[in-house]
Amino acid sequence: MQAQTAPAGTQAAALEVLAEFASSMSSDSNVEQMLMRFLEIMVRLSGAKAGAVRVLTTDGGHLRTVGSIGLPDALVEKERFVPLECGICGQATISQHTQSNQVLTVCQKQVRHMYVANQCKTIYAVPLRHKGKVLGVYNLFMAGEHCLTQDVRYLFNSISEHLGMALENARLTRENMRISLMNERTMLANQIHDSLAQTLAYAKMRLSVLNEAIADGEQERANRYLGDVEEAVDMAYAEIRNLITQFRDRIDPRGLVFALQEMVASFRKKANADVDFLNVAQEVELTPEEEVQVFHIIQEALYNISKHARARHVIVTLDLHEGQYIANVADDGVGLPGGASGVGKSFGLTIMRERAAKLNGELTIESRPAGGTLVRLTFPAHPPA
């Protein structure tokens, strides 16, 4: 069988398909729906009696049927999962090129349905490949033994390569989502360990010495330990509320600047203070992980201001100077007890410094000469990828 040249009508249809394909690649987020839509187009252009599209399973050993056109339900159910090396699909997988042959010759062990035997004589397998790896296969069942034209074969090969890329991108997206979920859970676990767990451990130790003091009849010492326990419980309650707030306030998907604008607007209402945000950096180029760290550092700084500072005016600034991002949170509140030396080792500040370390940056907290406190985060800027 020799490939034929497509008539002018088929060439025009091919151009329409390419235009639709380019549009779908940029707008369609559901890869399997895209695969089915182009199965319909391939069946129509090839004049096939039926068609199916299959994709590689996660274990890499089977092909899963995404959908079909013109095939009986019983046959589709029977071939919902087929071995990767099965029949003509296996030939296309190994060679990474379109294969064709008589249906009953290459699929006699798998296809025993009367419909295929009576209606279809030739089967095509068009592999979906990306970077030397086959990710799926299109099957076209033809009524006769004629070949696809050269133009149609070229079109199908081109589409299959781009659909293979879409399948690979979808797989990478799923992997990235899993990694993001794992990272978020790890971050939550670290925060609980660094704040709530340590506070409760302190309370547990104080309960132990409290029991000893009660057993020894030392009322004054017992009262002192009881006060320590009450303070630890209050701190734990405040920390759990802070954690809930942090993980309820998600960062804006449009980026850090929009997220900070929304955070400042929300803080302005809650704190009953005059709060401003000034973005001097203009273009902010950060990775999603960096944005999350900066967002939570500033969030924690604002939370501390609302809790302790009694400030009337707060300004948040973001700047880029000599290859360094600089984020400032300044207030006109009561300032630090004892000046800069009054900065303690609270769990909130510890977590802020750990976040700064993840940015390869530095966090400083100092008293302002005019009154109030300045929290400054500096970290290196990376050239955009």
Task: Kindly report the average pLDDT value.
Answer: 77
Helix % is 40-55%
Strand order of the largest sheet: 3-2-1-6-5-4
Please identify which CATH superfamily of the largest domain we are dealing with: GAF domain
- Summing up helix and strand content along with how strands pair, one would put the structural category as alpha+beta
Largest sheet: 6 strands, antiparallel
Provide the number of structural domains: 2
Q: How many distinct beta strands?
A: 11
| CATH topology value of the largest domain | Beta-Lactamase
Radius of gyration: 32 Å
Q: What share of residues are in beta strands?
A: 15-25%
List keywords for this structure.
five-stranded mixed sheet, 2 domains, 385 residues, Heat Shock Protein 90, alpha+beta, six-stranded antiparallel sheet, disordered N terminus, elongated, Beta-Lactamase
Could you write a compact summary of the structure shown?
With 385 residues, this protein is of the alpha+beta class. It has helices at 8-27, 31-46, 73-78, 87-95, 103-106, 114-119, 150-216, 219-248, 256-271, 288-309, 347-358, and strands spanning 50-56, 62-69, 81-83, 99-102, 122-130, 133-142, 274-279, 313-321, 324-331, 362-367, 373-380. Helix content is 54%, strand content 20%.
